[in-house]
Amino acid sequence: MKGNKNDFVDAEGICEAAIRPAMRFVTPKTEAQRTLAALHRVREGLVRERTATVNRIHGILLEFGISLRIGMSVIERLPATLSEHTLPPRLVQVLERLHTHFKYLDDQVKRNCRSSLRKTTTLCACLPSRALEPLPPACWPLNWGMQRILAPGVTLPHR
């Protein structure tokens, strides 16, 4: 190291590295790759918000002594749970709004995933239709090399 870190030393290091024959450069991402990366970020945000909504509903129910299994079963059983237990009307309205919000987020996640996958013809040709919904973004083509194109029925790696 030649001295303390500063812009001049950084620039000198970049120039020195660029003239080395073994230096490999990263190709800039295409517009399609950047778009798909943005879709990943949006989808991940929707999934995070959907999970937070389920946890919020679960927490509210626990505060009122209603214990359900953790996970999506809270959403599946919510209408039955609201009719079985006596809860304040205002709370029932809030829980119903959260349930509606969850359904909206779930629909957006599924729609986002399907539209992204259908636009990727290579992937659609390789995957069975039942595999369209549970794919995490890490399994989408942006993160695959050509060697990772899957045959139908092969299980997908999870993040």
Structure description:
This protein has 159 residues and is mainly alpha-helical. 59% of the residues lie in helices and 0% in strands. Residues 130-134 and 142-152 have low confidence and may be disordered.
Task: Give a brief description.
With 159 residues, the chain is an all-alpha fold. It contains five helices and no strands.
Topology of this protein?
Blueprint: H1 7-18, H2 31-63, H3 73-84, H4 89-119, H5 121-126
Helix pairs in contact: 2-4, 3-4
Protein name: Transposase IS110-like N-terminal domain-containing protein
InterPro entries: Transp_IS110-like_N, Transpos_IS110
Domain Transposase IS110-like N-terminal: 3-63
Order of helices and strands: HHHHH
Q: What structural class do you assign from the helix and strand content?
A: mainly alpha
Distinct helical segment count:
5
Helix content: 55-70%
Q: Which word captures the global form? A: elongated
- State the low-pLDDT regions, or none: 130-134, 142-152
Distance between the termini: 37 Å
Rg value: 24 Å
The biggest sheet amounts to: none
Mean pLDDT, to the nearest integer, reads 77
Number of strand segments: 0
* Strand content bin: under 5%
Key terms for this structure?
159 residues; Transposase IS110-like N-terminal domain-containing protein; mainly alpha; elongated; 5 helices
